[in-house]
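ingest -> validate -> predict -> emit
validate: passed (alphabet ok, no gaps, 623 aa)
predict: started
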Amino acid sequence: YSFRLVGGKRLFFVEAKKPSIDIKGDISVAYQIRRYGWSAKLPVSIITDFEEFSVYDCTKKPNPTDKSSIARIKYLTYDKYLDEFEYIWDTFSKERVLKGSFDKYVQSDTVRKGTATVDKEFLTSLDSWRTYLATSISIKNKQLDEDEINFAVQQTIDRLIFLRIAEDRGVEPYGQLKTSVNAKGDSYQNLFHNFKQADEKYNSGLFDFKKDVISESLTIDSKVIKTIINEMYYPESPYEFSVISVEILGSAYEQFLGKQIKIDSGHRANIEEKPEVRKAGGVFYTPQYVVDYIVQNTVGKLIDGKTPKQIEKIKIADPACGSGSFLIGAYQHLLDYHKNYYTENGTKTGKKDSPTTPEGNLTSAEKKRILLNNIYGVDIDTNAVEVTKLSLLLKCMEGETETSIAQQYKLWHDRILPTLDDNIKSGNSLVDTDFYDSVIDFGEEKKIKPFNWQKAFPNVFSQGGFDAIIGNPPYVMLQNLETREVFDYSLKKFVSAKYKIDTYQLFTEASVKLLKEKGYLGFITPNTFLKNIHSEPLRRYLLSKTVISEILLFNYSVFNSASVDTCIFIVEKSDKTSNSIISIKQVNTEFKPESLSEIKQVSFLENKNADFNVNITISIFIF
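emit:
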């Protein structure tokens, strides 16, 4: 059983066993609950047969051979329940949980914190699977170049993860991948048969073999394939794929995408950090609470009070989508809003065009419709684009079963997943196709990947542009990242490009241009642009082209591995800025925004260099 807050946040699992089970001593029972809790990244979970009651710390990575006492925080038998009633009630009862007692409990010294979080471990697994595949493919497929090998490895891993998750969620028969690779014949070709069947069932770009002409003819060592598959199954795998969230996968994938396969002169594969990642000082995954805050204050404002019909036309984009964390957050917000709307307003179920099932959940057709209508993304990294698609497809498939998919196909001849090629695209968000006018070296052109937003998304710009742009753009100096041609191009194209050019500043200006009037932009960026002398042009641009509704300051480092000081800013595209008031807020490590001051936007123009002096209160300028 999964215990959740209203709104969906999962707090802990309770595994209910029959009374004959030895909860205190059975190591398989302890491993099962720890595996579920750890995979879902929950701090604690419970196992009980009523006669016994055990609470486990789920932050420690479980191993099948662990004694049942390892990571056990509390063990009670029924005759101690009255003596320990206050502990049970204060920690796990609905009344106390809603008052924050559970949060305090899991943050206390009582709950010992582990270090091997599921996303870090999953990253380790992804890295080892990539190494296995890259080594075998590069040796046995000499006709492939570096880009093709990177593509083949990424696609194979993505497909395996998708199908393995589908198995644990009950959408696919459990163990079919393992059965395929252990059958007679070539393991990879047996596996490819599963991929072909998935194409027929899901109609997803993930299994599009008209577009992918490489995978079918690959030669991969059977031993390599069997090793990877075995590491995806119990007992070798610590992962319970049915409860690993898309957000956790995204966290691991974001780091994974920071490296690439390089092929040496002997056609041997090496895994190296990408140059742009090295120059940026690493990959910094955006915490979920930051994603949720930005989504709530952009997408949330846009859809509040609207009907599903009105929301159809709202277009949301992330111009540097990475593994898709912001787009997943926006999509989840839309799914929750639609489900609540239909629950409160009532809908007819059981018909093809019904948006909900008899149980009150959104139908797969409705989830597809929302995804295709509302969510857009761009990234220069082709592999990142594929991961974003994978994440969105997994989110779209949440809650589906083998029965629901079969029934849908039988009744409506409708396959469950959409193709996202028209929504999520690869290209350079900052370099338009007018770059062709100045570039001569077509090798550089391929690397730079010029991208025209209007041609890529004509239906969006026929409506005037995007309604919301959200994200965490890259923070790296342009002169360290790009060629001289791109640097010179940026100086001409962007008013915010002066001398030292940080890419996040260009993303900010470009995003405002891509918005329709009254569209929202929500970014987390370094806070240096608030006062840095080189950022004066960007500040003046924002002051003239947008209404700045909020600046949220952090008094701690959001990104664990980076010392950069950040802020969130929410702006609305508008030139009617004369009476607008900016809300200045600050948060501590518990992420509880507190209002610091309110400042009249035009007052910033009175500062030297149009500094965003966020410490001055509104009263100075009004009275």
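The longest strand covers residues 515-526.
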